[in-house]
Amino acid sequence: MKPAKRTILLAEDDRNMSFMLQDNLEMAGYAVDVCSDGRAALSTFLKNKFDLCVLDVMLPGKDGFSLAQEIRKLNLQVPIVFLTAKAMKEDRIQGFKLGADDYITKPFSVEEFLLRIEAILKRVYTQPTKADEQFIYNLGTLNCDFSNQQITSALGVQVLTNKEAKLLKLFCLHQNKVIDRDIIQKAIWEDEGYFVGRSMDVFISRLRKLLKDDPQVTLTNVHGVGYKLEVRDGYPATK
Which structural domains are found in the chain, ordered by start? Predict the structure, then answer.
């Protein structure tokens, strides 16, 4: 099986710039998801697994620095590259304090940009990934098949609704990390507010019942913040 393409989240509101970067990245062999504002980029990041994020600093909706902070709450390892027209030292320092792997000032050479991306990915990922068409996670003794929307345990098979599958996939992608309530609402319901929050609580309760076949797997309420999917006693979630 050939290694899967490295996946890149590109958040850039300049249409000409994003088209040019996406085109060159894809020609270089990468799979690219493009977002034109920070809120959409965060929602896309939550729903998918990325190998690297390229974030423009001056994004509408949620600026690149704020977006990076949200991403870092969920994933400490994914490389982040900032793109900016700002050349001020204070901005570069802020970017690196947020955990940036690189900071590229516009205008820049596309060839240099690609070389920097390649260097970061080589440094961070020493082993190739394999394509996983069905997207299956193992949570302890539970087998979560998102293609077929079902959970299999020693007691049998339980079918998930589309919303339950999306919600569980989100928790699996960010296992053992607290996900804020508002982030969950925006990622799955693409909305927020009282009634969406109540609907989310109902789905969380359903997921707890679906996961109860393995007592080592828990979906914990972190009071006033959000929820966290945990797998205890040496059962890491695997893909």
Answer: 7-124 (3.40.50.2300), 136-231 (1.10.10.10)
3-state secondary structure of 56: strand
Beta bridge partners of 77: none
pTM more than 0.70: no
Per-residue pLDDT of the chain (239 residues; tens, 9 = 90+): 455 789 999 999 999 999 999 999 999 899 999 999 999 999 999 888 899 999 999 999 999 999 998 898 888 889 999 998 766 667 667 777 777 888 888 888 888 899 889 888 888 876 444 434 346 788 889 999 888 889 998 888 999 998 888 889 888 877 888 888 877 877 777 665 656 668 888 889 999 998 988 988 999 888 888 899 998 765 555 55
Work out whether strand 150-153 and strand 142-145 pair parallel, antiparallel, or are unpaired. Answer: antiparallel
Taking the C-alpha atoms of residue 169 and residue 43, their distance in angstroms, rounded to an integer, is: 13
CA–CA gap between residue 156 and residue 136 (Å, rounded):
17
DSSP state at residue 138:
E
For residue 85, which phi and psi values (nearest 5 degrees)?
-90, -5
Q: Are 59 and 11 in contact (CB under 8 A)?
A: yes
- DSSP class of 55: E
Q: What is the chain's Cα-based Rg?
A: 19
Contact 170, 183 (CB under 8 A): no
